[in-house]
Amino acid sequence: MHWTTLLPLALAAPSIAVVRFHCSQLVVQRVDPLVEPGSIPSSHVHQIVGGNSFNATMDPKKDMPAESTCTSCQFSEDFSNYWTAVLYFRAQNGSYKRVKQLGNNQFETANGGLTLYYMQDAIYDQAQKSKVTAFQPGFRMFIGNVSARTIDEAARYRQLTYVCMDTWTQRAPETMQFPTRRCKEGIMTSIRFPTCWDGKNLDSPDHMAHMSYPETGTFESGGPCPATHPVRTSQLMYEVVWDTKPFNSLDWPADGSNPFVWAFGDATGYGTHGDYVFGWKGDALQRILDTSCWFNTNCSTESRSKLQSIDAMNKCTQKPVVDEGIDGWLDVLPGGHQAEYGPPA
Ligand SMILES: *[C@@H]1O[C@H](CO)[C@@H](O)[C@H](O)[C@H]1NC(C)=O
Ligand SMILES: *[C@@H]1O[C@H](CO)[C@@H](O)[C@H](O)[C@H]1NC(C)=O
Ligand SMILES: *[C@@H]1O[C@H](CO)[C@@H](O)[C@H](O)[C@H]1NC(C)=O
Ligand SMILES: *[C@@H]1O[C@H](CO)[C@@H](O)[C@H](O)[C@H]1NC(C)=O
């Protein structure tokens, strides 16, 4: 999808809300308060953005806006934490090197991190008329399967994708596995979370059961929520731009396989996943969703006044609590992981 062509048209529509904004890198380290609370270190390296109250325990009762002194997100009232695993390149000699992220399109001066969308309707639907319910304090969710190594295992999470970016604004085609060729501008990974909530539980043991995809179709096609999960929420989506360019000039596998590996060892791409811990101040997210807001460029005056500069976002960082080498050429991925390839096709 090319925003440059979409944007002028979209601005003509009334009361639209697709909230798109960036969050710079808060910290990169082995900590995971959702899946492995209290573990220092957790099993694999993550890149984390958002409020600086982030830590390894994160009691759901924690008042994230009150305990944070800054956020790396553009909306200054968003103290949520958003994270994904980090990506590594595996050289032909078996050494690994971390792939850094880039500020996304329109956020080029941001220090890494990821871009967020909170949508009312499919992003290409310029009407954005549906009313959606914002998440609430204490809400958390996870999507994906770290152990998935085949397309069948990943099929349940069909909206976790890769784009081989030959141009900076390219957003298609999307694949469920890693691209196997050199991508001129980098690799984008997108994580679309489920959009139907059970209306009761802020979390669940697998951090997924309280949420569901629509019963039929998708959020994009306006598919209805199942009776078990009747509350239609905003679609939360992450976009991460991985700067694979520095690796394009190195030797790649002669058999044409992909040289990139998730920090947990997955070299297929099917194990991609995302974590979310809601931490917006008060009803700030609902207010933004209820008023006109196209990306962050044409939000209501009130919503716009809550945006901080990219410089301010870049200044909100945390010192890692896990002191280990995650950069430079490594013999093994932090936590002891090695590249795992799926079963032969
Ligand atoms: C912002 O959107 C409103 C409709 O939601 C439109 O009337 C207005 O012209 C837009 N402003 C700009 C600067 O594009
Ligand atoms: C995390 O922050 C809480 C306060 O919210 C604090 O009580 C706890 O000790 C911190 N845990 C770690 C591991 O830093
Ligand atoms: C492994 O390969 C990379 C990329 O060519 C190179 O920079 C690195 O020095 C090599 N490491 C070893 C231990 O040979
Ligand atoms: C994740 O994938 C593994 C490996 O196939 C499988 O055993 C497990 O049931 C899957 N879990 C979920 C929640 O899909």
From TrEMBL:
Which branch of life, at top level? Eukaryota
Give the signal peptide range.
Answer: 1-17
Q: Which InterPro entries match?
A: DUF1996
Q: Which residues form the DUF1996 domain?
A: 32-280
Keyword entries, A-Z: Signal
Q: Which Pfam families match?
A: DUF1996 (PF09362)
Name used for this protein in its record:
DUF1996 domain-containing protein
